[in-house]
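Table S4 entry, Nucleoside-diphosphate-sugar epimerase.
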Amino acid sequence: MSVLVTGGSGFVGLNIASELLAQGTDVALFGPAAPPAGALAHLRGLKGVLTIAEGDVRDRRSLDEAIAATGASRLVHGAAITAGLEREAVEAIRIAEVNLLGTLNVLDAAVAAGIRRVVQLGTGSVFGSVPPDIDAIDETLPPVPDSLYGITKYAAERAAIRYRQTRGLDVVVARLGVVFGRWEYDTGVRDTLSVPLQLARLARAGEKACFRAGLPDDWVYAADIAGAVAALLDAPATSYPVYQIATGRRWSITDWCERLKGTYPGFDYALSADDALINVARAAPTARPPFRVDRLREDVGYRARFLEEAAFEDYLAWHRAGGFETPSASPQPADDRAASMGAGR
């Protein structure tokens, strides 16, 4: 029985699909368009069977048809519009339709089809601006979203919890840290690409990166997200409705830039407060404290495999191989002792 992944052509969805297919699980990618050719070539070379199911989460019929046609028994819901301030001003209704109403369609379709487990991808944006006296965020901190993206995603999160409580749907929300990694590209629904991707592009071009202090630094490598989602799908039972997937630590952006300098001699970087010089965008006005991952560790044995050195080496190998232009092998950490997944890995 396969796993249906909504938003499957986005970079997080592609990483999840790669993980599941490598394990031998059949995967159906659901979205308005097929993934880029390089991603398809990679995914079709893995153990599981890949199916492409084109559709839109705003269209309940297309969801029902995709679940029936693929025989999906589990589902990962990742479809969303990660909107910035400019898009909020012109596409508020569409953002709500996809992020909230689309989620309700997915949950209703899952109930109707008897889906065994749903993992719904959430976001740290539900927390908005966190008080300065908080040094780490666990799942019990009350969210106060301050962007339309965060507001709609928090509403979707609460809807999933309600379905878990009242509709008998085995659904969990997985809030993601600040994700980066292989397969990231501009899909048109993420208004700000990850800081590591922006830095990598500047480094490869031999340009200087200028950015403000306080860039988001609760980074997590996409392969670790994928492993954790697979573990949540496979867990015999889940103790909580909400889990957080991250590394549980801050990353040093200056250390990351120093690694890039050592690899790309023409690259340099600097902190700046001059808007005319800033060329590294950020999705949030300030960095939030890192996520705690105790629940995930206790329930599925999660440990992040790709910390700074392993993530950099894998990410560098990915870019040197051409990124999306060249299909490449599944990611491997520089040191497999760094971590393991107790379930689903």
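The two ends are 18 Å apart (CA to CA).
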